[in-house]
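Entry:
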Amino acid sequence: MKLFYRKEGSGTPLVVVHGLYGSSDNWLNIGKRLAEKHTVYMIDQRNHGRSPFSEEHTFDAMKEDLYEFFETHQIGKATILGHSMGGKTAMWFAADYPEKVEKLVIADIAPKNYMLLKEDSQFFLHRNILLAMQDIDFTEIKTRNDVEERLAEKIDDKRIRQFLLKNVAKDKETKLYKWRINVEVLYDNLDEIVSGVNKSWLDDRIPITSYPVIFIRGMKSRYILPEDEKLIKEIYPDATIVDIPEAGHWLHAEQPKKFMKAVMLCC
């Protein structure tokens, strides 16, 4: 699949892989800063942003999309910065193509099955978000504020609503607003998005030591818990974990200066 991307700067390659509901747009400020030292590629993963939509949304597919991107742009080896779902894509890609990885920087996701958290699983949060997104009838929408009002009926967290609104775009042909993510397909594949790229997927490769791995954790997020440190070290014995105070899961948007400082130290 030919992915949409943005490119900034010059120097050693660095590829940014966004998370669920994200896009390259969300990483422009970070990318421009990183471009002081690197050639930065910010991709839109399949079913997100300006990349093609597909009925398939698996980590195998996203891994191969990333490999095709490396080949198309003749990237021999790169640092990969992946957030959330993009972090899992990056870990899975690196496991299969270690020769392509200079360094792995994973933002606020662990290599674990989040479905195992049961009632605390992020599955239910994302299911409710995607259901709320599917329920919006864009023929009734006149402004982005209308979208937020509809979302607010089912999503209490204003930060989440504001993040989702970045995916609202106007269709050039119909002149109606629309989602720039493939909401229905993401909903259908939510089980894999939440559970995939866990220790059992990586068992035949453990321990992974062929490239440096850094995890950046938001201290107000529950995606990398204290007990996950042991799991991370089992898979990546030399991994470093960097904490960002006062940051939740979307740490690059909530604490951009602190996040940037952490990434610059890694890269």
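The longest strand covers residues 101-107.
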